[in-house]
Amino acid sequence: MPSNAIAGWFQIGWSTDLQVGDVRQLRYFGEDLVAYRDTTGTVRLAEAYCRHLGANLAVGGCVVDDGIQCPFHGWVWRPDGTNASIPYEKRTSRVRLRVWPVVELFGVLFAWHDPAGRAPLFDLPTEWADIAPHLAGRTFHETGPATQSLFPGTTIHPEMVIENAVDPAHFRFVHHTPQAPTVLRQENTDHTWFAKVGFGRRWEDGVDRPDDQVGTLQLKFWGTAVGFNAQTDRERVMIILIATTPIDDTRSDVFGTYWPEMLPDDQATGRHQSYIDDAKLALPDDIAIWNHQKFLERPALTTSEAGGFRRIREWTQKYYPDAGAEPLAHLRGRKATVAG
């Protein structure tokens, strides 16, 4: 399962990366890309190489209205990939650039990529309450450089990240929690995967109390590569986005974005920044494992683990349009693959 065979929404940066008129060179999905913010303030994403003679639009190209102009011969390309103008010709060209849909949400830039060329299959959340109902009505600090982490070129299969949602046992050994959290609830729709886990003795009974969020972590993935979670303690909520974007078949950029809940005395105490600093400690622990981990299609899972991994891998199968046999379909009969 090569990484860039996955369909879905993928983070390509943050809103602050591109001001109006800015052009940026990117490489994702095994391709060189150009991202730019046009004069209307909208971010666009296209293949980097001009279809005329192959000049790189991201190197010396400039924004013209809602399009991008090639630095070599001045050809201008529209957001839909069509040719807008050729300065020295009366007619335009019929060739097109390949373009990717982009949305900008919560200060984050996401692009839709599908190896099969399909239009977006689902929408990303537009309200915090889409992640978890108890976030409704709360206000969160905006994202900025102090609330962002990037781990470029990580050797990781993107599916490893979403599998953390069904792997509470790793918390003790990777994040050094006193005990593994208790899985309280898991549910999924066609394109979202949700899990609620509880930390500490108050949740040891495994009973989900819907009106009680203290000491819980609620994770919700949209597709395989965009995972929000809401961490709730007695003081406030911290929202974290972990997003994994394939560069090529073996490497991905891993993004972390952190939104602490805004409380009245934050400006005076700076307490919210300590929440950010503490929250940012967890992802490097995961990266240290992922960067040296091999993705196994037939892992030796224990009886307690097999069900969760089987369900999540069957659920993610829809995002591999060119895949053959179902990953982990053999886990329906666990005898050959389950340890313990």
UniProtKB/TrEMBL annotation:
It is found in: Membrane. Its cofactor is Fe cation. One of its GO terms (biological process) is lipid catabolic process. The keyword Transmembrane helix applies. Keywords: 2Fe-2S, Dioxygenase, Iron, Iron-sulfur, Lipid degradation, Lipid metabolism, Membrane, Metal-binding, Oxidoreductase, Steroid metabolism, Transmembrane, Transmembrane helix. GO terms for cellular component: cytoplasm; membrane. It catalyses: cholesterol + NADH + O2 + H(+) = 7-dehydrocholesterol + NAD(+) + 2 H2O; cholesterol + NADPH + O2 + H(+) = 7-dehydrocholesterol + NADP(+) + 2 H2O. Pathway: Hormone biosynthesis; Steroid hormone biosynthesis; dafachronic acid biosynthesis. It comes from the Bacteria. Belongs to the cholesterol 7-desaturase family. This is cholesterol 7-desaturase. It comes from Cryptosporangium aurantiacum.
